[in-house]
Automatic annotation (TrEMBL), chain A:
Gene source species: Bradyrhizobium erythrophlei
Superkingdom per UniProt: Bacteria
All copies of domain TRAP C4-dicarboxylate transport system permease DctM subunit, residue ranges: 11-427
Coiled-coil stretches noted in the UniProt entry, renumbered to this chain: none
Name of protein: TRAP transporter large permease protein
Major location category of this protein: membrane
Membrane topology classification: Multi-pass membrane protein
Subcellular location field: Cell inner membrane
Sorted UniProt keywords: Cell inner membrane, Cell membrane, Membrane, Transmembrane, Transmembrane helix, Transport
Automatic annotation (TrEMBL), chain B:
Name the record gives this protein: TRAP transporter small permease protein
Known function: Part of the tripartite ATP-independent periplasmic (TRAP) transport system.
Matching Pfam families: DctQ (PF04290)
Family statement: Belongs to the TRAP transporter small permease family.
Membrane topology designation: Multi-pass membrane protein
GO terms of molecular function: transmembrane transporter activity
PANTHER family, A to Z: 2,3-DIKETO-L-GULONATE TRAP TRANSPORTER SMALL PERMEASE PROTEIN YIAM
Gene Ontology CC terms: plasma membrane
The Tripartite ATP-independent periplasmic transporters DctQ component domain, residue ranges: 28-154
Amino acid sequence: MSTDAVAITGFVALFLLMLLRVPVGMAMGLVGVCGFGYLTGFTPALKLVGQTSMRTVTDYTFGVIPMFLLMGTFVSHSGMSRDLFRAANGFVGHLRGGLGIATVAACGGFAAICGSSVATAATFSAVAYPEMRRFGYPQSFATGVIAAGGTLGAMLPPSTVLAVYGIITEQDIGKLFMAGIIPGLLAMTMYMITIALIGYLRPGFLPAGKQTPWRDSFAALKDIWAPVLLFIFVIGGLYGLPYLPRFTPTEAGGVGATGAFLIGVLTGRLDREKILASLLQATRTAAAVFTVLIGALIFGYFLTVTQTPQKVTEFLTGLGLGSYGVLAVIMVMYLVLGCLMDAMAMIILTVPIIFPVVSQLGFDPIWFGVIIVMTVELGLIHPPVGMNVFVIKSVVKDVSFTTIFKGVLPFVATDIIRLIILIAFPLLATWLPQQMMAR
Amino acid sequence: MTRHSMDRFIDTIEWIAAAFVGLVALDIFVSVLLRNLFNYAIPDSFDIGRMLLGILIFWGIAATSYRGAHITVDLVWGNVSPRYQRWIDVFATLVLLFVVTVQTWTLFDKVRGTYRDNVTTFDMHMPTWPFFAVAWIGDVSAVLLIAIRTYRLVFHPEDMHDPKLKATE
Amino acid sequence: QEKTFELKISHWVPASHPLQKSLEDWAAAVEKASGGTIKSRVFPAQQLGKAFDHYDMARDGIADVTYVNPGYQPGRFPIMGAGELPFLMSDAKGGSMGLDAWYRKYAEKEMKDVKFCLAFVHTPSSLHTRTKKVVVPDDIKGMKIRPADATIANFVTQLGGTNVQSSAPEVRDIIERGVADGVFFPAGSLVLFGVDKVTKFHIDAPMYVTTFVFVINKDKYNEMSERQKKAVDDNCNTEAAGRVGEFWGKFEDAGIDKVKAQSGQDVYALTPEQVALWKKASEPLIKTWGDGVRKTGVDPDAALTELRASLAKYNALTP
Ligand code: NA
Ligand code: NA
């Protein structure tokens, strides 16, 4: 077999195994070892397994993943989401669609201390959905808002997916986090405008909540000191705000996790059971992510030997589509893949192949990180399959997929417009990290 | 092994992994604190931190594998009847068992190499192989747990309780 | 009838690094000498494995030829550690040739599970710091330093500093964030990785070098015909080591001039008295090194004397 045929066979086998629900990382590792063994010999291929596994799990920079995961689970379990929602609701709840706007705002606040899109969606399915239903919001709208709002978790720093992108492409994770801030805020604003527009265009579709007295609105603000403090400390330390200690990304995660733990314990919101649940959940997810990382590395070595990344680059750049044409092709591919797998698996599997293309075309790697995360997150909510939609369905039992997707559609449209804006004005993503460089 | 002791064994492994996550966070927090307050760096905190990370991940993989909490593609699985779902689960678990067994075997080689080659930490010149060995034991428990999972899937599917919410990101 | 080979050559620095060209040149020379029967492909930037694993990769056949920093794994290659002793070498080319000529017989013992090709060093390099000007060894006390290798790490510990580890691309980040106060780094790489943007004080003295080797998978080598083996051997010798060391050295040496040309940088030489203090402070390292070597059954005093003589022969011994 030619190396091309081996590579293609490898991909086919990989997708078959994945469709048969073999864990993504294990499938990549298995196919990678078989392919590498076929081309180079099975003794080296087996050595590759032990070497790659051990090296990956003991890589200090990868510590950023479990640490931000742990921060996220402590934060989720200490009920900060409820405070955020109450505070946002106090200001906008009385508007038409106000509870939806409050949900987006609270998702944004939560996203600033939690790195996961799925966790954000899960949290607000429990916190905001019952409220919206109580005030007579349609099911489709309520779940749609939460699915979309959840994606802020990966957009605004901290972001596990962006961290993994940084690890794979050897880009500065701190800068990637900074690059996500303005696009994340833009996403929040655009979601809110979308909700206001829906309320305006379809009178009677969205009700208004009750008016909160201004005094109470401001009083609720004091309950959100904990997330604000955590955000300033962690992201400020990463950015290098004056008077704050400066952290590397891994340290920011570790300090954030410890901080969230301390706040939770001191305010009496994290009991023994919740602490243990947080630790367990972070461990499971970290192990799941590392499994994919190890598998992807092995699969990557196999692809290296077959020269696949170079060939894909040559092929895509030789199409004569121009750099933006190739970018469009890549993004369509991600939207299709979004029907198959979750954000993390998609990033880990594809970025090693796509990143050389993007570098070759001269795109900014930090900017591309933001673009790719936006595209992948769009995959989490667009029909026919989307991880955030699954998560909401698992929390909100009595809702159909069709209903959720119907509610999500306006936000999918918003996301596509936002993608176009980000592609037209890359400075929206690159400006903040450049400021960080300058000092 | 009786059902009860199997469950106890699984829980213990999961708790060990969870404890290591906390330890890694603590190691980082204390390092940052000492650096910023006393300008002091703990010798070998880097090497120890990364080796604890390795331990936590391998022990975590054991738990994650047992719970069926790996990242998977559920497109086909979600659209077939429970009968076929079970067949798919059995197949996937068998592949998982095979892969992790091979991984554990090759990792033993790696641990032995670390011992034989006398690799030490940077600051205090501690041998690194004991850390690697502890991580490796985590992978051994993964093989055991996946074997238990396979057994239960085939013979006692009622004993399986995969978490509702899978681990993602 | 000779077999044809396509060797996988693996290294872990970016393709823009001078080492890429050195390896390409090496491959071209081998191909020519073998009458075109040994072709190669160079895989840069850890495409086939992480930096730390490159020795094992050649041993296990994951790659056929690899570039290794033996100092990455403290305790594993004790004899080679001699090359890392401070204030030993004064020149990249001569240092590489002196080290290579000396190490050949020890490689048979210390790197026996691979075919040793050649050993070389980067140019004599020094310490770069952010806020504190380091002039004498005592200045290191209380500082957090990113060491270049295991020997420098020992040095830092002995002087009362602590080591902060990181990969080369992260050095800028950890200094900028105050995780480390300084770094032992060659000057060209300092500029390449942007570390010059976050450091201000630069010692201009041949404080240390880092040692490297090219190694080859043994089975691959043994499969070759006599003519092919000769083609490889003719490019695995002291002259070849000198070529690699010289080419990289020029790149690094150009770096210090770039730093000097920047405003606000303090590049300073050490007085003979200060150098004497540093040398004296580094003497315990010779003993530590010797203890490690003695365990392998080699007489460290004799080995070091030989190394000094070899370096002197190639005009690269620091006076
Ligand atoms: Na976030
Ligand atoms: Na989708």
